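To whoever is on call:

I kicked off a structure prediction for a single chain this morning and the downstream step that reads the tokens threw a length-mismatch warning. I double-checked the sequence; it's 255 residues and nothing unusual in it as far as I can see. Pasting both halves so you can look.
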Amino acid sequence: VKCSLGLFNTKKQSRSMSTKKKSKAPVAASTKKGTPMEEFLGPNLLVEGDTVKPTNQVLKGKDFVLIYFSAAWCPPCKGFTPVLTDFYNNQAKDGNFEIVYVSSDKDMDEFNGYFAKMPWVAQPVDAESAQKKTEIAQALKIQSIPCLIVLDAKTGKFVKDTARIDVAEAGTDKEKQKEVLEKWKAIEAVPLEEAEFSGGGGPMTMSGFFYTLLKNPAFIMAVLYGVKYLMKMWVKYQQKKTLESGEGDVGSGEL
């Protein structure tokens, strides 16, 4: 269950965010080449509200960086975000990783409301960062959301792009969450140009799908509504088929 990708990038929204952040954004050195993750994500990351910090400061000493492509308008994203939040709150400190949210929200209100519920950091949504977000999505071959990609925080190398499945299947079980991290650590990271991408979050397994439903009652109602609608359409189809078959029989009897 996924949504097609549409990166948040309009001139009006970007200009508005840029105006808010100029006074608080640290000045990044332009003559010094940055670390791999700074080069990949840009010089700054949005920490909360309109406060940004240098990327190197936010990711200092981390083993993994999880790039989370999501949006408030995407139902599967809204279903997975609480699951990812539980994973982050339980494991981020000991697991030594950080999550960076890359927004596909439609406007500033949507972004602000959605990001306010997240305990991690985000890719800035100012004018200067708009092109960088597009570059990140293209580099990671993103075609749909939600998508969670694991990168080596020190080298920027690719680890895995179907991490969403791992997190969903672990659920709230802390031991399984730890096992997920150990599995990631056992994977040999490769340069992005050598990585084999799936193009999105990968197919959701049945266990992960049902766990997401249980964590989000609204999803259950949506599924029930969908099933009811399909059954109604099926009944109409069968009635139409029966009626057409009956008319054919009458016609045959008249000959």
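Update from on-call: the warning came from a stale cache, not from the record. Cleared it. Sanity check on the structure: The longest strand covers residues 64-70.
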